[in-house]
Design a protein that fits this description.
905 residues; eight-stranded mixed β-sheet; 13% strand; seven-stranded parallel β-sheet; 26 strands; 37 helices; single chain; alpha/beta
């Protein structure tokens, strides 16, 4: 059982230090503070587990530390009896009562009026992925990955707390200031007299070399032991590997040694080195130059530790043995250094400021929340790779990312650390009032599908009429019932004839009602043409083309999503495509009235007036929406250089929009992925053209299908979801006798496409000419390059220029079957050279990678939001490996990224 909770004397300042007490430091700091601050009582506290337990004023067994009743009682005891607290190593004072680390206790104690400081000890803030970069001999590459991953997560969390906390923060060793630069070095404390020795050093023929690691992996014992064992075997030293020795026995261990080799992994020094120096032993260790410089700057003294690394340790020891006088002189500096820096006076004066200084943290202080941004798109988000890539990238920068979209049914999901929310949007402005009453009175069909439904009813009526005639021919059944008797009477025949003529008239009416929809379909089946452009221009000039008239559903979304945006209070709204632009702009207006500033980014995925397939009247409405609200955007982003210039021209923008390609992410090498050839059961030597992406008539895939009779043996794979146009393409292939060479391949997630298609022969982009097509650099274009595929593109200018100038494949006139055949034969003959040229051009691969696009995004966000979190500037900050991680699945840590790239064991 633990002893009774300590009650400090009735003095003005009562400080609790705990619960780590590593190497007894909590207790020694407590005594040092009391020596420097007479009106202060300090209680050291720690839990014990029977291994290297050091003295403390209040000790409890580990089992008690985990007991909920004790946690609550001790918390109440501290509130009633203490005025200050110093939390060590971000460990919770009260078990897991408030959190799994010290942050919960910190907030609770501040709220109750206590003044609280934080003390960093070492492994609590020494982030492995950063340490391996700055320290050549870092231990982390040689430790189990599971252990290091846990350290990576815990230290990253602790560093964020230390660097955000405005109160007193301290670090026990100078190297930790690289991780918590706002902290103050509070030197470790030892009792010099306890370690003092009059035994001379280096007077024996075989010097005694001691190595006493508390943690062999962190001390670099794997470097020390082989060298020491060899020198011992040669009779040059007597090596003592010290293990299982309690703290009380260590003074005699050091007094009986000549040389103490301390640590060769961390690059700093700690308690063990100070104890050996206090005993007048010669300490040999690896201490980085930055630590030595900091010690000298802070104390005016040079650190009397002989420098050595794993590479030169043997040579350094041989030099020490060969020059005993010089080495004795160096060792003699140790006791004075420790007495000046590590006897407690310096640390006591420093920590006395915690209890004697005025409160410097408000009681309601909270760690700064993540900066909040919202992505918006007129879709369910989970199918929009561009939005997801933005979201996962921003989340990696320690931003709080919420994606708001629309779906037929409400859902809320978390992908990694990105929240995707699609609320249900009721019809409140659209299809209400006069709109709803008149909607059913429309004499024509709105589309072909509506016509097919009505035609189905007509078809049933005709079948029913023919069935009646068939009954007459067949006659009654064998049951003898007269209820289904003959209908051959004159009246029945006249009635049936009338019904037949009525059905003929009804069919004519159906065809007439379908005419506007079919005419519109013919006008937009390719989404191109001068007539379509004239229609769009006409509608844009008329009141009928205003978005409020044609798109009342935008108002529905505003009424639902507007309050949600107000509630979220983001710093930035990033709108993808035009539909949500007005909703986001109005949210920024309301925020301004409330005294808040919301930045707005508009991401134009396409040129609205040149949108194919969409009816011209709706295109005009979209253009009107963009024209009204684009001036509210703080920055504009788009998908190609030509489109950036068109947007600047059309909207008279002062600044040219930034360009972010919809490039693929970098999948991890061991990520599972299907193979297109395996899916289609095609041998490796079968020429395979691949098209990946959305399919409509304007995409020009019919050109490719029509070319196949002239390309014997060449297969076409369309990687897309089935739709009406694909059915037309399959029918055309059957008509041409090439159906066995046209394949509809299962669609895969966008982040899997490059690996899915990598064994195809050529990637194709056969788009017909349309404004949007002419200026587009499509995502499939970037995917083909990521898969090292040569590209055949139609002469849409943006992509054609890239293919020609970068030697990526061939260009042919859009829609020209013979020219496509010639281009295909040319690329097939040169396929291996082009593919190798793409694969071996790192600049090209980088240019069309998502990582390069993320650098542009980061620059934009930095300009718009101001300083981004430090995470945004880490070496791997622009690389993501998944766009739809599972719920709460963390992205690969920086440690795992380091491990993957370093190829270290």
């Amino acid at each position: 059982m633990s002893k009774a909770m300590p009650v400090p004397p009735a003095v003005p300042n009562r400080l609790l230090i705990g619960p780590a007490n590593f190497a007894g430091q909590g207790d020694l700091w407590a005594r040092a503070i009391e020596a420097q601050a007479p009106d202060t009582s300090v209680t050291s506290y720690a839990w014990t587990n029977g291994v290297l337990d050091f003295p403390a004023d209040y000790q409890i067994p580990l089992a008690t530390y985990g007991d909920k009743q004790w946690q609550t009682e001790f918390y109440e005891h501290v509130l009633a009896n203490y005025t200050h607290a110093l939390i060590e190593a971000n460990r919770p004072l009260f078990g897991v009562l408030h959190a799994n680390d010290g942050s919960g206790d910190l907030l609770k104690l501040l709220a109750k009026g206590l003044r609280v400081g934080l003390m960093a000890h070492g492994s609590d803030v020494r982030i492995p992925s950063r340490h391996v970069v700055s320290e050549q001999w870092s231990p982390f590459p040689y430790m189990e990955d599971r252990t290091v991953e846990l350290l990576e997560a815990n230290t990253t969390r602790s560093v964020k707390l230390f660097n955000s906390y405005p109160g007193p923060t301290y670090a026990s060793t100078p190297d930790l200031l690289d991780f918590v630069p706002n902290a103050t070095w509070c030197p470790v404390v030892i009792e010099p007299e306890r370690w003092r020795s009059d035994t001379p050093v280096l007077e024996r023929k075989r010097p005694v070399v001691a190595h006493a690691p508390s943690k062999a992996a962190m001390k670099g014992s794997d470097l020390v032991d082989p060298i020491m064992a060899e020198l011992d075997r040669r009779g040059l030293i007597e090596y003592r590997r010290v293990e299982g020795v309690g703290p009380d026995q260590m003074p005699s261990v050091y007094r009986d040694a000549d040389i103490v080799v301390d640590q060769f992994r961390i690059g700093s020094y700690g308690v063990a080195a100070c104890e050996a120096m206090a005993a007048g032993r010669l300490v040999v260790s690896h201490v980085s130059q930055s630590v030595r410089d900091h010690v000298t700057a802070a104390t005016g003294l040079e650190l009397p530790i002989v420098q050595a690394t794993g590479d030169d340790l043997e040579a350094v020891l041989l030099d020490v043995i060969a020059n005993p006088e010089r080495s004795r002189e160096y060792a003699a500096r140790g006791p004075a250094f420790v007495a000046e820096v590590h006897d407690g006076r310096r640390s006591g004066r420093l920590l006395a400021g915690l209890v004697e200084g005025p409160p410097d943290v408000l009681a309601d202080w909270q760690p700064p929340p993540k900066r909040k941004i919202v992505m918006m798109a007129d879709n369910s988000i989970i199918g929009d790779s561009r939005v997801l890539k933005y979201a996962q990238t921003a989340a990696k920068w320690d931003l709080d990312v919420t994606c708001i979209g629309v779906s037929s049914s409400q859902f809320s999901r978390v992908y990694g650390s990105v929240h995707v929310f699609c609320p249900q949007v009721p019809s409140r402005a659209s299809l209400t009032g006069w709109r709803k009453r008149l909607d059913g009175l429309r004499p024509w069909f709105s589309d072909e599908d509506e016509y097919e439904v009505a035609k189905g009813r007509w078809q049933y009526a005709t079948r029913e009429l023919r069935g009646d005639r068939g009954r007459d021919v067949r006659g009654p059944g064998g049951s003898g019932s007269e209820s289904a008797g003959s209908s051959k009477s004159l009246g029945s025949r006249l009635q049936r004839a009338a019904r037949w003529r009525a059905l003929i008239l009804q069919r004519a009416v159906l065809e007439a009602r379908a005419f506007p929809a079919r005419r519109a379909d013919r006008a937009t089946d390719l989404g191109i043409g001068k007539r379509r452009e004239r229609m769009i221009a006409l509608h844009r000039s008329l009141p009928s083309g205003r978005w409020r008239r044609q798109m009342p559903e935008v108002i529905d979304h505003e009424l639902t999503l507007g309050p949600l945006l107000d509630q979220l209070e983001p710093e930035l709204i990033h709108v993808h495509d035009v539909f949500m632009l007005g909703i986001a702009a109005r949210a920024t207006h309301r925020a301004a009235l409330a005294g808040r500033k919301i930045k707005l980014i508009y991401d134009a995925h396409e040129y609205i007036p040149g949108t194919p397939v969409v009816p011209p009247l709706q295109v005009a409405a979209y253009s009107d929406l963009e024209r009204e609200f684009l001036p509210d955007a703080d920055r504009v982003i788009t998908i190609s250089e030509p489109l950036a210039h068109w947007l600047q021209r059309d909207h008279k923008l002062r600044v040219l929009p930034d360009v972010v390609l919809n490039a693929p992410i970098e999948r991890l090498p061991d990520a599972e992925a299907d193979d297109l050839r395996d899916v289609l059961s095609l041998a490796a030597d079968v020429p395979l053209l691949v098209y990946s992406g959305g399919v409509d008539r304007a995409r020009g895939i019919a050109t490719v299908v029509d070319s196949l009779p002239q390309l014997p043996g060449v297969h076409l794979a369309i990687v897309a979801n089935p739709n009406k146009v694909i059915a037309e393409l399959k029918a055309r292939a059957t008509e041409l006798g090439v159906a066995d060479r046209v394949h509809l391949a299962p669609f895969v997630r966008s982040d899997e496409v490059p690996r899915y298609i990598r064994r195809a022969t050529i990637g194709i982009s056969p788009m017909l000419h349309a404004p949007n097509h002419d200026i587009a650099v499509t995502n499939k274009f970037c995917e083909y390059l990521a898969a090292d595929l040569p590209i055949i593109t139609s002469d849409t200018p943006a992509q054609a220029e890239l293919v020609t100038s970068l030697d990526l494949g061939a260009v042919y006139p859009a829609g020209n079957v013979d020219a496509f055949v010639a281009a295909t034969r040319t690329v097939l003959a040169d396929r291996d050279r082009i593919s190798e040229r793409i694969a071996n051009d790192p600049k090209l691969k980088r240019r069309f990678s998502w990582s390069a696009q993320a650098e542009v995004i980061r620059s934009i966000y930095e300009d718009v939001l101001g300083n981004l979190p430090a995470d945004a500037w880490e070496s791997d900050a622009t690389t993501i490996h998944k766009i739809l991680p599972s719920k709460n699945e963390r992205p690969p840590s920086r440690w795992s990224t380091y491990r993957r790239l370093s190829h270290k064991p």
